[in-house]
Predict the structure.
Amino acid sequence: MEKKFKKEIWIGVGAILGSIIIFLIASTFLSGRMAEMSQQISSARATIAKRAELLANLAEIKNTSAEAAAYQQKMNNLLPPQEQLLNFPQALSSLAAAHNVSFNFSFRGTPTLPQGSSAGIAVFSMDSSGSLDSLELFLNDIEVKATRFLISIDGFDLSQSGAGYALNIQGRAFFR
């Protein structure tokens, strides 16, 4: 009976130790698997947050696209079409006449056509003469006051010519 009792104790201790070993092996395996799943969940949450941000940005872009189209149209209206540049010398001539300034205008070279969002450019030169005050008012009207044409004056040369002054201007007119 004593042998049977010792045998049962050893079997019981073995079963307990075996259970503990199986539990440790299972918990180690499950712990690694849980860490892996935790990493996958964290990665999935980051992906979801990024996609939600992208969707919010897309919704904002869609909401403002109509407004942007209106501004694009207004910006296009600032620049005349290339054909309207033919009226540019006449507009300058009427300004020169209003200020009692003699005037000569010419386009130089071939215009650079618009590409993408860049405006087209037509280079011009202009000679005018008159009193210093008249030339100043004329230049102010061309450069500062609103006209139908958007121009850039790249350089000018002012010289005294007899009783008056001569003004030579080089510039660019922009078109769409």
